[in-house]
Amino acid sequence: MKIVPDTSAVIDGRVSERIESGTYEELTVLVPEAVVGELESQANDGRDSGWEGLEELQRLTNFADDGTITVEYIGRRARGDERDAAHEGDVDALIRDLADDHDATLLTSDGVQAEVAKAKGLAVEYVEPRGRGKEHLAIEEFFDDQTMSVHLKVGTKPKAKRGALAEMHYETIRDEVSTEADLKEWAHDIEESARASPEGFVELQEPGMTIVQFHDYRIAVARPPFADALEITAVRPIAKTDMDDYEFADELKSRLAERQRGVLISGAPGAGKSTFAQAVAEFLNDNDYAVKTMEKPRDLQVGPEITQYTALGGQMEKTADSLLLVRPDYTIYDEVRKTNDFSVFADMRLAGVGMVGVVHATRAIDALQRLVGRVELGMIPQVVDTVVYIEAGEVHTVYDVTTEVKVPAGMTAEDLARPVIQVRDFETKKPAYEIYTFNRQVVTVPLDDEEGGKEESSVGRIARQEIEREIRSIARGHVDVELQGQNKAVVYVEEDDISYVIGKGGGRINDIEGRLGIDIDVRTHEENPKMGDSASSASSASSAGSSSHSGQVSEGDIVTPEITSRHVVIRMDEHVGETVEVRADGEYLFTATVGRGGDIQVSRGSAIADELEDAIDRKKQITVVAA
């Protein structure tokens, strides 16, 4: 008897299995070179299927050496374009032609291949692929009612996360160390079951990583070289909730059902964000909203009425374009992490689709801040108007996000009015944060007086830093600022700088007061009642930085940068053309060459300038050393 096994039968080990069972007599196995090429390609990609198929070919060689069977390799290897089109049947067609040419029986575990061969009048032996119709995986033995995830790795004891949602523990669940053979067997069972079962699918397959969905289990199989050893991580939901199980349930349901909204569900990993998102999806679906999901991988456990989409062609932008044609009322986006995800989320929301995004964040406000710089500041409340923070499976905090033109809290001058994003506590309706632009910077200011009045408030700290920057753009020496209320400050400078800071007829200081909306009293350091060793040393450092140096730049020469409207300037008059390093408290900031004018100029707004200005604001010692 002659048989031609295709790739599926070789990978499944069905040829050697049937030889050992005595199914065949005087057997000649004709192995297509196209099969060998496919297995080699899969093995090179790090896929277990390729290695398993090559092991099967080695078993056939052993049978041939024993005289049990005859093995011949026939045909040609598939060309690159044929391998690329394997999913279209090009390689399968080569194998069928070989079976026909050699008057052999085609052995396959591929149902489509079997049906096509029968239609062409070929002799076919179809064997069920491993895993067909399986309802359980081998690794399910590690799960109990309180197991959320199982972690298996070569050379380690199996571990699991178990317990109630608020009290998860990572614990060893078996004393026996897992071997590579164990992991390979489990991985094969997982992947083949997912491919064969109508309740499973392979979500992602890349060299070194396979992600599978099988019933309620999401399973990641990692292999070298992506991982240092073969590893399997299986996760499943241990709780399915509805909106009534959470605090603020009635208020949140009314808010979501009122109109399409932009919602961020935030929390730490394992806090229960996806579980809450599922509850939101089911509630919206039950209240006559058309709901879809965007997930990579698909992980949410939702009802059949809610269609789950993944990245189309590997790109969520394409998925979004498709969904805009479908026009769902709400889309659940799990998870929003990268800049591109936030861009897609914002585009869909601004197109009128209600959006619910799942975001990793350790505080509720952090979820909103992740939009800053990714979405135009004034558009943030149109993109996200609700933030829900989940902690230990419970709704911990809910924020309402709006915008209005006002004077930020802690400031008084009417000419300081600007668009301000107000973040209010959903329960108390009290403002918790304000986000706005202050002197070209986006700042997030807490309004709950965390300092209790004992230390400088956030608004005060920002105001003091801006005053220091303005005065430093004029003064050459050390500058110290003391706030005296919301709209008054005292600035202490070197005696020689008084006239420069005040300006002719007080014009210069009046301009600064007008820009900042704060009354400023300019005095010398000697008039500072708090002046002590620190002020004296700062003044001395300033003098040292202002004085000229001769010869080669020494280790750690102290300088005092000047901040102008456009540049941060470091004067190095006698070192034209030298390459130097600029440091803050000994930490490297950047390397520069002293220009012809004897200075180093860094454009404000650049990353280097921002670091340098931040170091100045924090009163770090700025030094210059030879590069």
Automatic annotation (TrEMBL):
InterPro entries with a match to the protein in the record: AAA+_ATPase, KH_sf_prok-type, Nucleic_acid_metab_PIN/TRAM, P-loop_NTPase, PIN-like_dom_sf, PIN_dom, T2SS/T4SS_dom
Protein's organism: Halogranum gelatinilyticum
Ranges annotated as biased composition (Low complexity): 534-551
Recorded superkingdom: Archaea
Keywords of the record: RNA-binding
Gene Ontology MF term list: RNA binding
Residue span of region Disordered: 526-559
Matches recorded under Pfam families: PIN (PF01850), T2SSE (PF00437)
Domain AAA+ ATPase per the UniProt entry, residue ranges: 259-394
Gene3D superfamilies associated with the record: 5'-nuclease, P-loop containing nucleotide triphosphate hydrolases
Protein family: In the N-terminal section; belongs to the PINc/VapC protein family.
Record domain PIN: where: 1-115
Protein name: ATPase
